[in-house]
Amino acid sequence: MKKLISLLPLLILIVGCKNEVSKTHDQISPSKDVVAFFETYNKLWSEGNFEYITSEIYDLPMTLYLQDTIHYLKSPNEVKSFLTNTFNNLEANHYGFSKINKWENYREDGNYIIVEMNFTRFLKDSTIMGNQFRKATYILNKKNKEFRITAMIPHTIIDK
After folding, report:
1. In the chain, where the domains are located
2. pLDDT digit string (tens) for 2-53?
3. What order do you get walking across the sheet with 112-123 strand by strand?
4. What's the predicted TM-score (pTM) here?
5. Closest Cα to residue 149, out of 82, 69, 84, 55?
6. Is residue 151 within 8 Å of 65, Cβ to Cβ?
7. 3-state DSSP helix/strand/coil % of the chain, to nearest 5
8. Which of 32, 54, 72, 128 has the highest CB neighbour count under 10 A?
9. What is the structure's pLDDT at 129?
């Protein structure tokens, strides 16, 4: 009986491991189109190209769920104003560029795609800016075979 009781945790572990295992973070792989979209977005963001981001990347209305507030941007001018302020703050903090590290979560639901991306920001001298591993969650809408970001949840302060 003592042997059976001592084997009980092992049996529980074995039975528990027979359940379906979710993918690890390294196994998440968005479609090639989504990866290409985010590589373009990352390049544009690193360049501070808010004109192109406004017209070709963000969809209207655009919702930003920041740490302390929610912005509901309804017009191109509101998007440009937000991005201009953000890029001015990043520039003041010597922002250089960003690099995508990996995909944390990915889910497609019809024309909507939810992506959580892990990335690193670098200063102009190529040292890491702030947290090494930042995360942001995006909601994409696919219209006419093109992706647009309709909502974003940055999990760290967006302009620091």
Report:
1. 33-154
2. 443 343 333 333 333 333 334 444 578 888 999 999 999 999 988 889 899 9
3. 70-73, 58-65, 146-154, 134-143, 112-123, 95-109
4. 0.78
5. 55
6. yes
7. 40, 35, 25
8. 54
9. 84
Q: Which two tokens stand for residue 43?
A: 């390049």
Q: What is the CATH number of domain 33-154?
A: 3.10.450.50
Instruction: Give me the residue label for tokens 């809408």.
Output: 141
Mean pLDDT of 67-75: 92
pLDDT at 2: 47
| 8 Å CB contact between 91 and 83 | no
**CA 147 from chain center: how many Å?**
14
CB 121 within 8 A of CB 129: yes
| H-state helical runs in the chain | 2-17, 32-47, 50-52, 76-92
**Residue 144 phi, psi dihedral angles, 5° rounding:** 50, 45
Q: Are 58 and 80 within 8 A, CB to CB?
A: no
Tokens describing residue 147 = 């992706």
